[in-house]
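Working notes for the structural subgroup meeting. M.R. asked for a predicted model of this chain before we commit to crystallization trials. I am recording the input and output together here so anyone reviewing the notebook later can reproduce the run.

Input as submitted:
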Amino acid sequence: MSGTIAATVTPADVEAAADRLEGRITRTPLLPFADAARDGERLLLKCENLQRVGAFKARGALNYLLQLPKDALAHGVATYSSGNHGAALAWAARQVGAAATIFVPEDVAAPKRAAIEGFGGRIVVAGRTSADRRAACEREQQRAGFRIVPPFDDPWIVAGQGTCGIEILEDAGELARVLVPVGGGGLLSGIAVAIKSRRPDVEIVGVEPVGAASMKAALAAGRPVEIAVGETIADGLKPVSVGELTHAIAARLVASVVTVEEAWIRAALRLLFERAKLVVEPSGAATLAAYLFAPELRLERARPRRGATVVVLSGGNVDLSRLPNLFEGAAPLA
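Returned structure, recorded in token form:
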């Protein structure tokens, strides 16, 4: 199965994924965070940093592999990833008894590389961009015959990520808005399908780094476009383009996409570490950064709003040796 514009993801697909994954993944907590809430709002943290493999990616990877017949696994599976999807696929492949090969960038974070290898994945280093590693993976497939599991632009992947949205709906109580980090758009589109089908009044907002705003560019152009990715500490949010499927869903269901500065991400990381006692990677902290600093969301908070705001903390795989450096240059908190 592959992600194409003709494909779609329905609420029933997400519900089926939830049934398939029950007992196999972690139902991550939704924690109140009053220390960052403003103007009487209720702010909740969806802690996917506490998920299996330390990131939401476990949901989509396992949902995909559980639907493959045994003969499709005979030559193994592979993917191209900055780290978290690769670790998730290596973990999921172990669950179904398949070999996994992961194509990673030259600057892959040390904990992500260690996780991939720890779950039995074979690593191939390929360039610095998502396009580099995808091309290398596709070339190797012609020789090895493995099954490529896309990191985001596939209905089975999107449906798996959408199970996070079901949990938010069930646990949040009264809900107004959900902020979701955007790399390729799998988590954003999956959560949007899950939540908007039951609660069309809830706003789904995507969050990207200023230097890697591929979904914002796609929504402006009306189609996925390749962007020149700038430097960002949010290494999981750096695809040069979102997917056709994920863009199509976002264009239909997502209220807006906002961008965050590097200093804002650093401030959010520090706040989560010091006040919430949570280790979160920069990509995961982008949502809290948007809540704290994005001008569009500050203006919206001036309006009366019923229900909680949920920020999805998408992963927690931080190179702890770099942790002090990640806080340098953090924007001051109001």
